[in-house]
Amino acid sequence: MRRVTTAESSIVSQCGGAQARRVQKRIGWFSLLIVAGLLTGPAWADYLVFRINVGDTSGPPQVAGQPGVPGQPGIPGKPGFGIPGAGLGGIGAGAPGFPGVGGVGEGIPGQPNQPGTPQETPGAAEWFLAVLQGEIVARSPQGPYIFRYDGGQFTFQPGIGVANMAEIYPIPAPSLSREFDELAKKKNLAQKSPAELARWMLEHWTYRAGTGFDMLKSFEEQLAAWEKTGLEKLPEADRNIIRRLLETRQHLKEDLPEAGDLLNRLASLTGGRYVLTTRGHYAIIHLQQDQKQAEDTLERLERLYHGLYYWFAFRGTPLPQPPHRLVVWLAESVPAYQKLRQTLGETRPTTADGFYAAADKVLVISPQRADPAYVRLQGRLQDINALLLDVGNKLLGQLFGGQPLPQELQLTIEALARPNPQLKKFLPIIEQMATQDANAMATLSLARIVINSSPAIYEEGIVATITSEGSRQILDAVGVLPARVHLPESLSDGFISLLETPKSNGEFRAASFYSGLGNPHWVYLPVFNFFTQEERLKAGEVVFNEKTQREVKIPVKPVALREVLTGAGYRQAWQAQPEQRDLLLLKAQAESWALIYFLAQTRWQQLMLFYDELSRLPRDMTIRPDVVESIFALHFDLADPKQPDKLDESKCQRLQEEWLAFMRKQSLPMRLPAYVGGSQPGAGNAPGNPGLKPPQPGGGFPMP
Fold this sequence. Notes:
Blueprint: E1 3-5, H1 17-27, E2 46-53, E3 127-138, E4 145-149, E5 152-156, E6 166-171, H2 176-186, H3 189-192, H4 194-203, H5 215-229, H6 236-251, H7 260-270, E7 275-279, E8 282-286, H8 291-314, E9 326-330, H9 334-343, E10 354-357, E11 362-365, H10 372-399, H11 413-417, H12 421-434, H13 438-477, H14 489-496, H15 524-531, H16 534-539, E12 541-545, E13 551-555, H17 561-565, H18 568-575, H19 578-602, H20 604-614, H21 625-635, H22 649-664
Parallel strand pairs: 1-12, 8-9, 9-11
Antiparallel strand pairs: 2-3, 2-6, 3-4, 4-5, 7-8, 10-11, 12-13
């Protein structure tokens, strides 16, 4: 039996010199993190993965590595996260220096992974994880490196990290444009295998315009090229697929009627303060001052709408158009968002920052992330602000003879991100002095991680919301998943998870690298692998140290198709003790995704007929498990010959064995070191530099 650290403990949340010094002792020192695979060619879309400990940070001090170097100025980024009372918005400016990075490749650099070895951090760590996409540019093998991303760029020096507080991993990967050119031109898939190229494009769908590779634009340009060439010149096996995609492209150009009746019903809730913006297939309610964010949201929703319709057409099930424009409400603040949840009677927990209110047919979106991990990150920002203030007073106080510093020289996250002219002059001096003080340098490094990950944190939140709750809205509108038919949560959540791009999960080291439709799930696949690992099944339980430092036991037993089908795992989660609930719910969600993913990959038409019949069940009534089993048995040829409305146990067992064998073959295209889904990192990640002392694992779950 292994003990796994996943929890948090209380942290200092008030800014003050004495308290800051106490917290600074907990920050620790530096751990050596190695650069791996950075010296790559051009046209790479690299990732920097940030893990920030928002729980306990106690641990033995470690010092290694060299100090950072002055950063490069950036361009203001997308709306980011704020510090209570400080008003920190979008962050994109560079900052002096940057923490180093962890190696990626065959195990932890300098030391191979040991399968089955626990990855523990002293104390009760809880990790917030985000992925920043851009391009790593190497100046020399020794560094520094420039990381360019939408919103700016910054320079970082290899060899600096913050032990028990933060980790950063570079993951080199080819850009979408480079991969597309390789497939379409060099491999000539555009002519040899159009369906394979279309599948790849849908599996790498993007939800932003104007930056990077615009997959929607490229997809429709490729459709136009196939149409111009003539379908008769394409391989016969692919013609029907491309024909359906072309027909779908034409249908997507059709206008939808206005949602007049629905908007009139919602008008009483707006108080006359909101305006309405329409675009394509959507109408969004928002404040006038939020016009820019509303337009950005509409753009992302349109990309979801197009991608989802193309994906269904590709799989042979073209969707009908909704009866009218889909209605979205962009809340003015997180408290307003929470109030709307109560007003609209929404009780379903979501993993995104929005919800689809089925009774009112409206998708409500929070203007910023509202999940518990993000809230705890906000608390960590207050700690970092306290530490920065203390560091600035200490270092600059030496220059001012111990006199109080003027306000314009106070060092905070906001000041570090957007320094005023006076502070800008002193930053190189602060940087140089910090090289002589490990705690000071650790504090600056941690602050820069937070500053430069702001765009990634915003992006993860909005994309997760759009792809999960936005998909739920579309599928309800066209009758694939009628929200008012009370299906087992495993069936509704399982299907939505085929389409969503999840937020990263820090405890499982599950980074959500890019978006796509129908891919292996970035979070649920490693979670499913974790709970179906043979040693844990033999032990019958996993022991966690939860938030209160109490020992919490999670039962582990072989996954059963029948139980997943009827939502037994969800019922177990809701009935469990509060400290068990989140993990049991995550386990149930992962099992639901795994079952629906397997059926979608191997029995798509049967799966759609199954959901079609489920959608015809009475609305607003709880569906009994035996009814679900009966319909499942009918459409998947699992009925008992003697009792046609019952599942045949032997047939069900054979399907379950096929499912689990299928899942054992699934993998993700890229992973973090010590990824829980397997002992070896994925292909494409270059080996780490050998011969250097590896970093401490930094928390998370043990590998299977």
